[in-house]
Amino acid sequence: MNYIENKVYFITGASGGIGKATAVTLLESGGKVFDFSRRRKLTDTVTHDNLRSFQGDVTSEADVAAGFAACVAVFGTVDVLVNNAGIGLLTTDLSETDLETYEKMVNVNMKGVFLCNREALRIMKPRQQGHIISVISMGGQRTNANAPVYCASKFGARGLSSGLADQAIRLGIKVTDVNPGPTDSDYWGDRKVPREKFLKTEDVARVIRFVLNQPPEVLIREINFDNIKFLAG
Ligand SMILES: NC(=O)c1ccc[n+]([C@@H]2O[C@H](COP(=O)([O-])OP(=O)(O)OC[C@H]3O[C@@H](n4cnc5c(N)ncnc54)[C@H](OP(=O)(O)O)[C@@H]3O)[C@@H](O)[C@H]2O)c1
Question: What kind of fold does domain 8-232 have according to CATH?
Fold first, then answer.
């Protein structure tokens, strides 16, 4: 059974990395994808009849409202929101961390998720159906010394998602957290990291597809996963 096809997927940050891999797998399964990304457009690198791109910033209330309205205008609704846009900046020494770095991460990783959740719920509530997936991180489950602010933003996003799940269940709306460990993407920039021990973006996309390809009554609330080589050290 294919529960993916013909549904409308609003994916933030689908221009690259995990979002792009997810968009491609959902398109291949017959889904309709609306990419909402800040600087690049998925349509610049992928061509498909069921794909549209919109340039917007998840931290802007106006951009988010305009993006959801554009998706409804093109595809008629939003069945699934994938909160994927996110940034990770190093904060190896908190005493040297400036407020701008803190605010950037909290704004994209928490406020952006709040704004997109709210807009999606306004479409999903009257229909009494929908699915909100947040790509949080294992950084929202375990902290590390290199990125306490990133972890704080992801713990915050996890709290928002958990409370929303409690609310949304009564409305027939599913909420799922997808928590990958380190994944090889542009997220890492030119940092020297052991990419050979990281998950691939396609691994994360496969997990998201699995979560989505369940019968309507089956809710996967949270899914944690890593590359075993990374955990082995
Ligand atoms: N990579 C990892 O190790 C890892 C592990 C666990 C969880 N995650 C999470 O997975 C998600 C995706 O990460 P990734 O590895 O795929 O990173 P990535 O390759 O850097 O891609 C990030 C995407 O988010 C978009 N984006 C960033 N800020 C945005 C904003 N303000 N508004 C709209 N779009 C914005 C980017 O768009 P433009 O570049 O076009 O602006 C890009 O499409 C993030 O939430 C990240 O925290 C990553």
Answer: Rossmann fold (3.40.50)
